[in-house]
Amino acid sequence: MDIRKMRSVRGEITIPGDKSISHRAVMLGSLADGITHISGFLKGADCLSTIDCFRAMGIKIDIDGSDVTVYGKGLHGLNKPQKTLYTGNSGTTTRLLCGILAGQPFDTDITGDASICKRPMGRVTKPLSLMGADIENEYCPLHIHGTRLHGMEYNMTVASAQVKTALILAGLYAEGDTIIHEIEKSRDHTELMLAAMGANLETNGLTIKVGKTDFLKAQDILVPGDISSAAFFIVLGAIMPDSEIIIRNVGINPTRTGIIDVMRAMGANMELINEHTAAGEPVADIVIRSSELHGTEIAGAIIPRLIDELPVIAAAAVFAEGKTVIRDAQELKVKETNRIRAVVDEFRKCGIDIEETADGMIITGGKPIHGADFAAYGDHRMAMSLAILSQLADGESTLDDSSCVDVSYPGFFEDFYGLEK
Ligand code: S3P
């Protein structure tokens, strides 16, 4: 597709629901006793994969626009699926399912698309095996022999909310306590939702303790807009001349707001208004205006708080004066594609001064760039980041695949061009 360039952007936008919270709402709603009403559900391909998997295990789930109703059957109510569970492109579905299925009284097979089959699953299957889990293979297809689990004390080796959540979910079924120590604080939507449902769970700083749980109480869940999707418009509004965008109803859970901290550090003209809490998650509207950005350093504890936003933050760095250094972000290599390699290769096509490092990249910004024929590697966040990057390029740009945005943001291009002034 040709990426159309806009001169400036202006207006209001309400972005789709949070992907991480939507997945968890369906999973925990299925394991709860009673009916869970979810509003603001993200009908992206990844979350629909989660719904398909739970339907295949006998859970009735109705979808009506962005309202979803899950008829939960309790922690012991899942049926053995009649076929291999297919998780599509979704790492969250695949890894969290491992945690739930390890302790079931039946066996399951899981597989996904070509990208999922290349993503490491050993990071969940190995710690789960310390709880007694029996899972064959470290890459999809996985064969899970359901078995009795026991608690454990575990020091995580990667800063990953997916790994943490898989262990927490297994902990609900395990005899004795499961104690997990994180390296850095990662998104805590599972802990918040489980606590609201009455699970036997405590958190203390980087430590989470889960006990065997018999009953989860169904809750109404209001999914806020996904800050990872808002990120594209935060960067767009900041880099475009004579622009202002109001992004409504964005989830600002502190484990997710690294992008706000970094954009502020880069000099973004940004305001948070209407801050409030909705169903246990903090929410705000974000106002972003044209900004004079400068380079910054992004490393350490902030990385898990903005891991999915790094490709679009890299685009912001291209239009910022001076150097931006991203370190401690080796996790980018095991996302939907290797996002360090993909960003460096695609950005270089437009003459950008960018260097790949072992755990990140260095970008020297503030120089003119030219358009290019881009590849998204089937990665939704690459596609959207490249659409933003192209806006200030001299000349035309194309994208090989725009449909992959459906994974997290169906309708992205309509919303994007809808902001043209
Ligand atoms: C997610 C956790 C993150 C993130 C992914 C969603 C989640 O992955 O990149 O998009 O919902 O738990 P990791 O746990 O691999 O860091």
Describe the structure.
The chain is α/β, with parallel strands linked by helices. The chain contains 12 helices and 23 strands. Helix 9 (310-318) links the parallel strand 18 (297-298) and strand 19. Residues 20, 92, 160-162, 165, 187, 307-308, 331 line the site of shikimate-3-phosphate.
Keyphrases for this structure?
421 residues; four-stranded mixed β-sheet; 12 helices; alpha/beta
Brief overview, please?
With 421 residues, the protein is α/β, with parallel strands linked by helices.
Query: Would you tell me the structural class of the helices and strands?
Result: alpha/beta
Tally of DSSP β-strands: 23
Bound molecules: shikimate-3-phosphate
Tell me the span between the first and last alpha carbons.
22 Å
The biggest beta sheet is recorded as: 4 strands, mixed
Strand order of the largest sheet: 2-15-17-16
Give the secondary structure arrangement, pairings included.
Elements: E1 2-3, E2 10-14, H1 19-31, E3 33-39, H2 45-55, E4 60-64, E5 67-73, E6 85-86, H3 91-101, E7 108-111, H4 122-129, E8 134-136, E9 142-145, E10 153-155, H5 161-171, E11 178-181, H6 189-196, E12 201-204, E13 207-210, E14 221-222, H7 227-239, E15 244-251, H8 258-265, E16 269-278, E17 281-289, E18 297-298, H9 310-318, E19 322-326, H10 339-348, E20 353-357, E21 360-365, E22 373-374, H11 380-390, E23 397-399, H12 412-417
Parallel strand pairs: 2-15, 3-14, 6-7, 10-11, 18-19, 22-23
Antiparallel strand pairs: 1-23, 3-5, 4-5, 7-9, 8-9, 11-13, 12-13, 15-17, 16-17, 19-21, 20-21
Helix pairs in contact: 1-2, 1-6, 3-5, 4-5, 7-9, 9-11
The structure holds shikimate-3-phosphate (S3P).
